[in-house]
Write a structure and sequence with these properties.
Blueprint: H1 2-57, H2 64-78, E1 92-100, E2 134-135, E3 139-143, E4 154-159, E5 162-164, E6 175-177, E7 181-187, E8 198-205, H3 212-228, E9 234-241, E10 245-247, E11 257-259, H4 268-271, E12 286-287, E13 294-295, H5 300-306, E14 316-317, H6 320-331, H7 338-344, E15 352-359, E16 364-365, H8 389-402, E17 406-412, H9 427-434, H10 453-456, E18 463-466, H11 472-482, E19 487-490
Parallel strand pairs: 8-9, 8-15, 15-17, 17-18
Antiparallel strand pairs: 1-3, 1-4, 2-3, 4-7, 5-6, 7-19, 10-11, 12-13, 14-16
Helix pairs in contact: 1-2, 3-11, 6-8, 8-9
C-alpha cells in the first residue's frame, strides 16, 4: 500500500518536472529562434546600409544633398521596415572628408591632401574647429557639410531596427533591437591613398548656342575645379569648341588667350584658323596652402578660361575634331609641353590621361574636308568614312579610349534633347556612347531632365548631363573625383 502511494507521488513529481522542463525547453527554443531572427535582421540591415553608403558615395563630391537623399532612398528601398517605430532620422546619413593621417602621436590631419582629395572647409583642421574630427594611424575623418563651398568624399549611413519577436513575448519581450549598424563608403582617393596623378584636357563649348549666363557658369565651374586639383599631381590644358585663335591683352597685361574668330562664318578657310587646344599644359594654376588656395591669375590656363568668349559666327558644332586633338595632345602626337613638364615635375604612380568634354550642341560639321578619326593621324575628322558628325565623334572617342585615355562627356542644353542629323539618335545617347565604360558597364544616358539629371550624375558612369548652368560646378567636381579609384567601403576612426 505504502509502495503504491510512493510510486504515485513519484509519478506526480516527474509530471510536474516534465511540465516545467517543457516550458523551459520551449522557451529556450523560442529565444533561440528569435535571437536567430535578430541576427538575420542585423545582417540584412548591414547589407542595406552598405549599399546605401555606396549609392550616396556615387554622388560625391559635388552634391552633398543628392548624396544624402540617394543613401536614404537606397537604404529604405532595401529595407522598408527601417522606419518601423523609429524616428525620422533613421537611417542617419553623415558626410565626411576622409584624408590621410600624419601617423604621428597623436595623429593629425595630413593637410596636403586638402582640397585635392576632399575639402571640408577652411583650416585649421582641429577638434576645436571641427569637434567630430577623429584620426587613427592611417586616416582622419573631418565633418563635411553639404554646401556649395565644400566637397566631401565619404558617406556614412547609420541605422538600427526594431525586430518583432514571434515567441519570446511569452517572457514579456515583444521586440528586440539589431543595435546600431554603420557603414561608410568613400569615393576617389580616400586618405590612405595619394591622389593619382592626372593629365587632363578640359574641352569647353563656346558656340553661339551657349548663352552668356551659362557660359559664365561653365567658366566658374572649371575655375572652381582648379582649386580642388593638386598642381603637384594634376597637369591641365584647355580645349574649345569651335577652334580658338589667340590675341594679346584680354586681361591685365599682354597675354595670348582664346578669343572668337570674327570672320565670315561661311568661309571654310576662316573656319580652319586657330586650334582646338589653344593652351599648353600647366601645373601652376593655383597658389597658396592646401585648404586656402587661390587662383593664380597670371597662369596661361587660368587666363584662357577667364577670357573664354562666345564664337561670333556659326561654325557648327564639331565634336570629333576637338576630341581627337585633345587625345593627340595627351598622347604626344601633337606638339605640346607635356613631356617636358612631366620630366621636370616627376609624379609618383601611374599617370592617368583624361578628357573632360562638355558640349551644349547637336553635332553639326560644316566643312567638307575629311581625315581619319584615328588619333595617330593628323587632320580634323569631318564627314569621314561617309558617316555623320555623331558617328565621327564616337569613332574619335573610341580611338582615344583604345590608347588608354579616360573619356568623360557632359551634355548640356540642346545636347540633352537634340537628335543627330536626319532625325537620328539622340545626341545625349551618342555622348554617353563616346564616354568610357563605368565600373558597371557602358555609360548610358537618362532623359537628363531637371528631375533625372541628378540621378544620371550619381550613377557612377562617365556621362553627365545638366539641365541648368548652375549645375556645372557640381558636375565638374564629380567628374574630377570620379577619375580616381571608384567607390570603396572604409572603416572610419
Amino acid at each position: 500500500m505504502m509502495r503504491a502511494v510512493r510510486e504515485r507521488g513519484d509519478d506526480g513529481a516527474i509530471a510536474v518536472m516534465t511540465a516545467l522542463l517543457t516550458v523551459v525547453i520551449f522557451g529556450m527554443a523560442a529565444l533561440a529562434i528569435d535571437i536567430g531572427m535578430l541576427a538575420m535582421e542585423r545582417q540584412k540591415l548591414h547589407d542595406a546600409v552598405d549599399s546605401a553608403a555606396h549609392a550616396g558615395a556615387y554622388a560625391m563630391p559635388g552634391d552633398g544633398a543628392t548624396a544624402i537623399k540617394a543613401a536614404r532612398d537606397m537604404a529604405l528601398s532595401n529595407d522598408p521596415d527601417l522606419t518601423y517605430d523609429m524616428t525620422e532620422h533613421n537611417p542617419e546619413v553623415r558626410l565626411w572628408c576622409v584624408v590621410a593621417s600624419t601617423g604621428t602621436t597623436p595623429p593629425a590631419v595630413q593637410t596636403s591632401q586638402i582640397p585635392s582629395t576632399c575639402n571640408p572647409g577652411p583650416a585649421p583642421y582641429t577638434t576645436s574647429k571641427y569637434p567630430d574630427l577623429r584620426c587613427n594611424g592611417a586616416i582622419c575623418k573631418i565633418p563635411c557639410a553639404p554646401s556649395t563651398t565644400t566637397h566631401c568624399n565619404t558617406v556614412e549611413v547609420v541605422a538600427e531596427k526594431k525586430v518583432p519577436f514571434g515567441f519570446a513575448n511569452i517572457f514579456d519581450r515583444s521586440f528586440g533591437s539589431t543595435g546600431s549598424v554603420a557603414s561608410a563608403a568613400c569615393k576617389g582617393s580616400c586618405g590612405a591613398e595619394s591622389p593619382n596623378p592626372l593629365d587632363v584636357v578640359v574641352v569647353a563649348d563656346r558656340t553661339l548656342s551657349l548663352s552668356s549666363g551659362d557660359r559664365s557658369a561653365m567658366k566658374t565651374a572649371i575655375k572652381d575645379m582648379l582649386k580642388e586639383m593638386d598642381p603637384s599631381m594634376h597637369f591641365l590644358a584647355l580645349g574649345t569648341i569651335h577652334k580658338s585663335e589667340t590675341v594679346s591683352g584680354c586681361v591685365s597685361g599682354a597675354y595670348s588667350i582664346p578669343t572668337p574668330d570674327r570672320r565670315n562664318p561661311l568661309d571654310e578657310a576662316d573656319m580652319n584658323r586657330g586650334t582646338w587646344v589653344p593652351t599648353d599644359f600647366s601645373n601652376d594654376y593655383v597658389t597658396g596652402a592646401p585648404g586656402a588656395r587661390a587662383w593664380k591669375t597670371t597662369d596661361p590656363v587660368y587666363k584662357a578660361i577667364d577670357c573664354l568668349t562666345s564664337s561670333d559666327a556659326d561654325y557648327g558644332t564639331h565634336l570629333a575634331a576637338p576630341m581627337k586633338e585633345a587625345a593627340r595632345k595627351l598622347l604626344g602626337f601633337s606638339s605640346s609641353n607635356l613631356a617636358s613638364l612631366s620630366s621636370s615635375n616627376p609624379r609618383p604612380g601611374e599617370v592617368r590621361k583624361v578628357i573632360i568634354f562638355e558640349t551644349d550642341g547637336q553635332p553639326n560639321e560644316k566643312v567638307s574636308t575629311s581625315a581619319s578619326n584615328s588619333v595617330t593621324v593628323s587632320g580634323d575628322p569631318r564627314k569621314t568614312d561617309g558617316g555623320d558628325a555623331c558617328a565621327n565623334l564616337v569613332k574619335a572617342a573610341q580611338s582615344a579610349k583604345d590608347h588608354g585615355i579616360l573619356v568623360m562627356t557632359i551634355g548640356f542644353g540642346d545636347a540633352t534633347t537634340a537628335r543627330c542629323e536626319s532625325g537620328g539618335r539622340l545626341t545625349r545617347d551618342v555622348l554617353a556612347e563616346a564616354a568610357s565604360h563605368g565600373p558597371s558597364g557602358p555609360s548610358t544616358a537618362n532623359s537628363c531632365s531637371s528631375t533625372d539629371a541628378p540621378l544620371e550624375n550619381a550613377d557612377g558612369d562617365y556621362f553627365f548631363c545638366s539641365a541648368r548652368g548652375s549645375d556645372f560646378r557640381n558636375i565638374f567636381l564629380t567628374a574630377l573625383s570620379q577619375v580616381s579609384k571608384g567607390v570603396k567601403l572604409v572603416r572610419l576612426p
